[in-house]
Amino acid sequence: MPKILLTTRYTQKPLEILESILPSDYTLIMLDQVTQEDLIEKSSQAEYLLVSGRLKIDAFVLDRMASLKMIQRTGVGLDSMSLDEIAKRKIPVYVNAGVNADSVAEHTVMLMLAGLRRLPVIDSNVKRCVWEKQNQGTLTRTLKGRNVGIIGMGNIGKAAARLLRPFGAAVFYYNRHRLSPEEEEELNISYLALPDILEQSDIISLHCPVMEDTKHLICRKTISRMKDGVIIVNTARGRIICEEDLIHALSTGKVGFAGLDVFENEPLRHSKLTELKNVILTPHIAGVTYDAFYRMMHDAVRNIKFFEEGRLPEIEQYRLKQGEE
């Protein structure tokens, strides 16, 4: 009976979804407390790791897993995993590339629109019986005609670009590797160097991983190059933004609005971000609609099951290749 260790703890609907998908002859082990200590303590019990959350999959965990056959990520982010230690032990890693791209892209566009329409302020005003139609309305903007700069053109960046097409925005992008002319034409996007993206965009949307050159990519220095009143949306990773610098820019109006689904430290606690009116904060939820979560669990369990049954060619496309991280 294969044993799967989930590296976090699900309750209510998430647990119900996962248990509905898990084969009856498989055992699911969950953490009692979402701590590194509990993960290390339970790690020796399992043959498969289902990696979700932010706990580290490091040497301390791996050294206790003598029977570990495979690691399956519920999504695609790898920043919690010590890939060198995993490779050293020759443990295969599987990811669900693109599994929640549509969900994250929809959330991204929602945050853009909320910023343009000053939704938090206007919602608050109406609830306080402030009814200033023209005065409030003329402070908002349409998405049509705006310059949207997307930093990172992977599955989610591409999904966001597709959603933006009907709005009539001009979409520019920066990516480590430029797309083909055919892809650019299909997505109706134009490539710009990073400095030009920063300077020309009315809205900047982040869709890149955290690496040495992207940590605190958005900081006092880069914000100073942006348009006054720029909107910044982050549904990627919190450490791409220096929150202290963003808070200052939001307070002065240099950044007009921010839509943030991810943060430098999660869960968000005691942050000045919660005191600002020109920001919407969501709890790293962009990729966790019912539909996206069901598919993430379905695909993750399928990969584990097929691996256990030796059906490796059928899941080869999901295996992380050396150097892809």
Summary of the model, kept short:
The protein contains 13 helices and twelve strands.
Task: Please outline the major beta sheet.
Answer: 7 strands, parallel
Helical residue percent band: 25-40%
Distance between the termini: 31 Å
Physical arrangement of strands within the biggest beta sheet = 8-7-6-9-10-11-12
Residue-averaged pLDDT:
96
Low-confidence stretches: none
Q: Sketch the topology as an H/E string, one letter per element.
A: EHEHEHEHEHHHEHEHEHEHEHEEH
**How big is the Rg?**
21 Å
- Number of alpha- plus pi-helical segments: 13
Briefly note the structural class of the backbone: alpha/beta
Describe this structure in words.
This protein has 325 residues and is α/β, with parallel strands linked by helices. It is globular. Helix 5 crosses helix 8 (155-164). It has a 7-stranded parallel beta sheet with strand order 8-7-6-9-10-11-12, with helices on both faces. The chain is 35% helix and 15% strand. It has helices at residues 12-21, 36-42, 59-62, 83-88, 101-116, 119-127, 133-137, 155-164, 181-187, 194-200, 220-223, 243-252, 290-308; strands at residues 3-6, 27-29, 48-51, 70-73, 93-94, 147-151, 170-174, 189-191, 203-206, 230-234, 255-260, 279-281. The longest helix is centred in the C-terminal third of the chain and has 19 residues, at 290-308. The two termini are 31 Å apart.
